[in-house]
Recover the amino acids of this structure.
């Protein structure tokens, strides 16, 4: 069984984070909470989202996997008014998820989870840890968007830098150590990433959240942050682009 | 959905895009200009396309029909012009011969024909022209009514056309539609019994059916793309009050785009192919290689025009350019034109038939023998023909590109430099590349492809 009551803003946060990578996702529900792991169809990025029982207003579940169409949940979210609570319940007989918002009952058929791949999570050693507020990252993304399709993230013992280089133009945003939440970096590391992925991920994070990025040299970046007032944790992983010519 | 207002809007923005692009290119006649324009956008600033004018001058000028009256069998065929939109010239295509003339207006059957054959088919067809408002689908008079019936016809039909002037014999080209022959203003049109395709007629009679499902259903029922396009151009589909004539060249791309998009929804959810596959064909001095890769859907068409080919008449070097899309549908019109959509339909047909997903890159080399634009059907039918062949299978991208290099003259590094999809395949890592915490897997491509610059200027 699965039955939960959740604030619309929490569900919205979860859905927006997942929707940057996939249209359909497997919700793994269990006694202690909800886990969603997903990898985008091009296998360039993945997400691992955990939200504990405490992130919900009410929560009760046995271990199960529920295939959810993310766009349909977005439709449900549009129906919620401020102060509403959304109830989700798994109807096992009909294989449906039943959403209740106010006086509306929306039943949606579940997606077959056998078609949704179970992403393997790489075990990475990432030496550098940078913690920064989302608005700084957004500023760097905005600056890069008109210049290139890629963004280079560089960390040095003195600070963090986001840079883009186009055919004729270039831009960079330098954040010295004192503008960062924290920085652990012994020597310089740099990796290049597809800007659209990076941008969509960062835009899905609520404004004001502190984001921790674990980085290496020509290596994936791990972007960690919390959701649902600290009751949930998200890790995004984005594979780098290697320029070798 | 409205049958075509979206398209008009889109095409207008494209034209705007191109005029800005044209202004950006300084120094007048840029070799790239023609390849992007393909005679349709007046990028060079001249009133008439100098390239096409050259062909007009060379084309046969004798009028084979020395009369204002023709009786013959229409393939069936029609043409809707785009000049003067929203008042356009609509009319039938009529040859001065009777019998089964269907071949003359069925590009699906032109594979293996020479440019001379195709010119010959088209020269035989006289295009009757009657000015009509695009929205006036129902009350355009007898000529228009019979033209519409012809557009929905399934076999060649005997017609008798009366013109106000003798047909002027010359061949007209443009990049999207097939060339067509002599033209004349038409004043009267009579027909025997026109055998209307029943499935098309059903969609025509259903004035509540949107044009998109109409087009898709007909296609799924096995109606040829060229036939759907013909009916689409005479406003046979869509909500009754929204029906409009759609200029032939717009309707070709509209139908290619709609059908391609529909098939893509299946492609994007299908399992990946197992190997790297390379399909090959050669026709009208165009070389085609279709690369399918075992990865999520992505698509690119790269065209290389040798000097002295149709759309690279002034350049001394090969002009090479591409357009591509990844998993998200594109929101802007492809700058390389309607051929992008024709080829996209063709590869999706192949993937849908075997319920597979793949990333597709199409390489096209147009060599000096390709002297005359014959329309985007050339792209659709050749890509179709290529993927009907048995593919060469490879284990990785490097081997596939090496093989393509043996068949193409342009060195692979030049293709890669132009390509968005290949660059992504080579440079963008995937999550699974890091599954063991070793060093990132080195790309299997680098330094392995021999540049062969000397051959580039051949042609």
């Amino acid at each position: 069984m699965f039955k939960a009551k959740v604030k619309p803003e929490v569900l919205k946060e979860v859905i927006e984070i997942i929707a940057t990578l996939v249209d359909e996702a497997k919700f793994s529900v269990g006694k202690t909470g909800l886990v969603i792991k997903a990898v985008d169809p091009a296998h360039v990025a993945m997400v691992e989202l955990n939200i504990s029982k405490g992130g919900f207003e009410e929560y009760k579940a046995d271990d199960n996997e529920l295939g959810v169409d993310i766009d349909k949940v977005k439709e449900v979210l549009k129906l919620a008014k401020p102060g509403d609570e959304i109830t989700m319940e798994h109807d096992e007989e009909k294989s449906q998820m039943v959403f209740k918002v106010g006086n509306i009952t929306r039943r949606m058929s579940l997606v077959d989870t056998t078609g949704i791949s179970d992403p393997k999570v790489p075990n990475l050693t990432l030496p550098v840890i940078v913690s920064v507020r989302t608005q700084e990252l957004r500023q760097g993304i905005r600056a890069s968007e008109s210049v290139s399709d890629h963004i280079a993230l560089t960390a040095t013992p003195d600070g963090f830098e986001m840079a883009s280089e186009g055919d004729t133009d270039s831009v960079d945003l330098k954040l010295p150590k004192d503008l960062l939440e924290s920085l652990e970096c012994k020597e310089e590391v740099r990796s290049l990433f597809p800007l659209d992925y990076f941008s969509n991920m960062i835009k899905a994070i609520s404004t004001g959240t502190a984001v921790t990025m674990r980085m290496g040299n020509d290596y994936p970046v791990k972007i960690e942050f919390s959701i649902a007032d600290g009751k949930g944790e998200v890790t995004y992983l984005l594979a780098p682009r290697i320029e070798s010519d | 959905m409205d049958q075509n207002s979206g398209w008009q809007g889109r095409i207008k923005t494209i034209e705007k895009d191109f005029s800005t692009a044209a202004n950006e290119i300084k120094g007048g006649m840029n070799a790239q200009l023609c390849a992007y324009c393909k005679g349709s956008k007046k990028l060079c600033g001249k009133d008439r396309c100098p390239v096409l004018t050259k062909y007009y001058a060379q084309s046969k000028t004798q009028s084979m029909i020395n009369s204002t009256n023709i009786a013959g069998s229409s393939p069936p065929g029609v043409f809707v012009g785009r000049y003067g939109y929203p008042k356009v010239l609509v009319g039938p295509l009529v040859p001065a011969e009777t019998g089964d003339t269907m071949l003359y207006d069925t590009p699906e059957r032109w594979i293996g024909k020479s440019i001379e054959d195709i010119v010959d088919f088209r020269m035989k067809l006289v295009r009757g022209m009657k000015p009509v408002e695009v929205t006036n689908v129902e009350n355009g008079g007898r000529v228009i009514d019979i033209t519409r019936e012809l557009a929905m016809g399934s076999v060649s039909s005997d017609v008798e056309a009366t013109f106000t002037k003798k047909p002027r014999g010359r061949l007209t080209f443009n990049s999207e539609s097939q060339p067509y022959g002599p033209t004349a203003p038409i004043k009267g049109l009579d027909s025997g019994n026109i055998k209307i395709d029943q499935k098309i007629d059903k969609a025509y009679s259903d004035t509540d059916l949107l044009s998109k499902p109409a087009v898709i259903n007909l296609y799924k029922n096995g109606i040829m793309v060229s036939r759907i396009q013909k009916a689409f151009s005479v406003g046979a589909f869509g909500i009754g009050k929204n029906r409009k004539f759609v200029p032939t060249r717009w309707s070709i791309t509209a139908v290619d785009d709609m059908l391609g998009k529909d098939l893509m929804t299946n492609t994007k959810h299908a399992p990946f192919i197992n190997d790297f596959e390379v399909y090959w064909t050669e026709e009208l001095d165009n070389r085609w290689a279709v690369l399918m890769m075992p990865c999520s859907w992505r698509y690119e068409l790269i065209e290389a025009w040798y000097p002295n080919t149709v759309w690279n008449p002034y350049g001394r070097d090969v002009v090479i350019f591409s357009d591509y899309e990844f998993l998200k549908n594109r929101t802007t019109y492809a700058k390389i034109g309607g051929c992008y959509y024709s080829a996209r339909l063709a590869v999706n047909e192949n993937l849908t038939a075997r319920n597979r997903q793949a990333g597709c890159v199409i390489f096209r080399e147009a060599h000096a023998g390709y002297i005359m634009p014959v329309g985007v059907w050339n792209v659709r039918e050749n890509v179709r023909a290529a993927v009907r062949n048995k593919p060469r299978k490879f284990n990785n991208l490097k081997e596939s590109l090496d093989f393509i290099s043996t068949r193409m003259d342009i060195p692979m590094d030049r293709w890669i430099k132009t390509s968005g999809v290949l660059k992504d395949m080579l440079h963008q890592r995937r999550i699974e590349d890091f599954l063991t915490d070793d060093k990132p897997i080195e790309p299997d491509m680098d330094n392995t492809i021999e540049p062969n610059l000397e051959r580039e200027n051949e042609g």
In short: The mean pLDDT of chain A is 93. Chain A touches chain B through 26 residues (CB under 8 Å).
